[in-house]
Amino acid sequence: MRSTAVAALAAGATAAVIVAALVQAAGSTPAGQVLGLTVSAPAEYRHLIEKAGTTCPEVSPNLLAALLATESGFNPKAKSPVGAQGIAQFMPSTWESSGIDGNRDGRRDVWDPEDAIPSAAKYLCDIAEEVKDVPGDKQRNMLAAYNAGPGAVVQYGGVPPYEETQGYVKAITALADKPAPGGGSLTTAQQAATAINAADSQLGLPYSWGGGDASGPTTGFCCSPNGSSGGNIVGFDCSGLVVYAYAQAGISLPRTAAEQYAASEPIKREDMRPGDLVFFGGSAAGIHHVGIYVGGGHMIEAPRPGKVVRYSPVDSMSDFYAAARPTSNKKEI
């Protein structure tokens, strides 16, 4: 089945409609919510947190990671003096009613992060629904309900006046809002939509070797590996289009495709969301092409000399190397 985004493209929808579809395809992520995990978490749990962190609008990967860090320090064997168990510190009675078989192995195990992490996300969503009519910030009320119970949040019309609960809510929200190491932050849904919209506005412009910058299409220079020159062509090469698109979203990226990969956070191919970058080549240093993923297995790209900015299947190139989410952080390649 084609994605909403690709269906919109096929129907000749306007860029605004396409972008709205792309944001919806990204998991109905509210504008401003981070598409990715900037809270430090053990590598073996990051995929679980990323996936479970989109269970409902009130839960984000960062919020879920911050909760787990606060509850157990990511220790799947943690047990509190009052009997809370596992990485998410479920009380046995709560686990009995709310634990799920996250890895579908036929049993619900509070000590198994593959069950406990998605269970924590689902439980957060369940109690967010229970306190949805309480005045105030929905995420703060949800966290307070996780700590003190929904009844207390309803009773006090918000975060209850318990010192422990108030400190708990402040600690988690502060950690969840902390930027990525090095001061960078990952792409938000709104930034991804803006970048895709900007790239879409350049459809049909010619490929120009070395062409394009943060301000738009430019003439390029000589010469590509096959000898093509962009010196008299106003347009974009692949990385120039990416630089321009993300500049419109307020994100400054390096000029070459390999440098853009080094300035982004690698993600698994199955976790790609609209706005992520897709890279092609034989190694990190040998990346020769980049496109902007738009969902449904498609990307928008400036492909090669003689072609124009267009939508293409990601699989139209045989040497897919990696997917990554733009961030202002840089790393060596």
Q: What class, by secondary structure content?
A: alpha+beta
Mean pLDDT: 85
Order of helices and strands: HHHHHHHHHHEEHHEEEEEE
Percentage of β-strand residues: 5-15%
CATH fold-level topology of the largest domain:
endopeptidase fold (from Nostoc punctiforme)
Termini separation: 37 Å
Domain count: 2
What would you report as the Rg, rounded to the nearest angstrom? 22 Å
How would a textbook summarize the main sheet?
A: 6 strands, antiparallel
CA-based shape: elongated
Instruction: Identify the CATH architecture of the largest domain.
Output: Alpha-Beta Complex
Helix content: 25-40%
CATH-assigned homologous superfamily of the largest domain = endopeptidase domain like (from Nostoc punctiforme)
Per CATH, the class of the largest domain reads Alpha Beta
